[in-house]
């Protein structure tokens, strides 16, 4: 995947982050554990690559997700209906196996007075997904962050994802998706609002 400008020191051509010896050594140990020789030519640079890759996978730890919701618009022409960002692709890693979680999220809110730039919903998702996660917590953290910072009338988050720890190992069930949701405010209390937002999401 190409680096985006928000990757900071990870932008192609920028100086690479230094990898501490103990981190590289940990990867060498893992290579040995996997059954290979970390001193063979093809694997010599792998510990540093893996270490830097993990800085990318886990760059959400360096972000304050709420910061993305700090630029508020109060005037949006009296708009008072659902705002939905649908099928946002994301990647995360499960905290049990550190294996990829690959999926999509739909994030909706019903504004009271505060509205944010629509990209910010995806930024909040990425700030939480680029950490070690379980899908339930990821779903709740995204919803809670929007609820706490925008004080909307409702928040709805639905996430569908495939867990590599289930597809590439373990139970070995490719194609299985896990679905989680968090409904808050009107989407939790009012059945019509809940149905409306789920229909807009395509469920
Ligand atoms: N609820 C939940 N479970 C997850 C998530 N990601 C991974 N898991 C599960 O975490 C569980 C960890 O179970 P353990 O028995 O401790 O680990 P394990 O022996 O590797 O389990 P298996 O995956 O069944 O081989 C597994 O059932 C995984 O499928 C997630 O986001 N949410
Ligand atoms: Zn897992």
UniProtKB/TrEMBL annotation:
EC number: 3.5.4.16
GTP cyclohydrolase I domain boundaries: 24-201
Class in the EC hierarchy, top level: hydrolase
Gene3D superfamilies: 1.10.286.10, 3.30.1130.10
PROSITE patterns linked to this entry: GTP_CYCLOHYDROL_1_1, GTP_CYCLOHYDROL_1_2
Molecular-function annotations in GO: GTP binding; GTP cyclohydrolase I activity; zinc ion binding
Assembly behavior: Homopolymer. Toroid-shaped homodecamer, composed of two pentamers of five dimers.
Keyword flag Nuclease: no
Keywords per UniProt: GTP-binding, Hydrolase, Metal-binding, Nucleotide-binding, One-carbon metabolism, Zinc
Catalytic activities: GTP + H2O = 7,8-dihydroneopterin 3'-triphosphate + formate + H(+)
Protein name per Swiss-Prot or TrEMBL: GTP cyclohydrolase 1
UniProt family annotation: Belongs to the GTP cyclohydrolase I family.
Gene Ontology terms: cellular component: cytoplasm
Binding locations of Zn(2+): 94, 97, 165
Leader sequence residues: none
GO biological process: one-carbon metabolic process; tetrahydrobiopterin biosynthetic process; tetrahydrofolate biosynthetic process
Superkingdom in the source lineage: Bacteria
Pathway terms, separated by semicolons: Cofactor biosynthesis; 7,8-dihydroneopterin triphosphate biosynthesis; 7,8-dihydroneopterin triphosphate from GTP: step 1/1
């Amino acid at each position: 995947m190409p680096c985006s400008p928000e990757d900071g020191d990870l932008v192609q051509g920028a100086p690479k982050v230094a990898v501490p010896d103990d981190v590289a050594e940990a990867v060498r140990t893992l290579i040995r554990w996997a059954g290979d020789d970390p001193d063979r030519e093809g694997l010599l640079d792998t510990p540093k690559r893996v270490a830097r890759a993990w800085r990318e996978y886990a760059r959400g730890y360096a972000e304050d997700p709420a910061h993305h919701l700090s630029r508020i618009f109060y005037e949006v022409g009296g708009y008072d209906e659902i705002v939905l960002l649908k099928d946002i692709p994301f990647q995360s890693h499960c905290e049990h196996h550190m294996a990829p979680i690959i999926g999509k999220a739909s994030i909706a809110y019903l504004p009271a007075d505060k509205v944010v730039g629509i990209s910010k919903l995806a930024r909040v998702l990425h700030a939480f997904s680029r950490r070690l996660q379980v899908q339930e917590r990821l779903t709740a953290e995204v919803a809670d962050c929007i609820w706490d910072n925008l004080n909307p009338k409702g928040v709805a988050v639905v996430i569908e994802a495939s867990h590599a720890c289930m597809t590439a190992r373990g139970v070995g069930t490719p194609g299985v998706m896990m679905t989680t949701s968090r409904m808050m405010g009107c989407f939790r209390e009012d059945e019509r609002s809940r149905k409306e937002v789920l229909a807009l999401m395509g469920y």
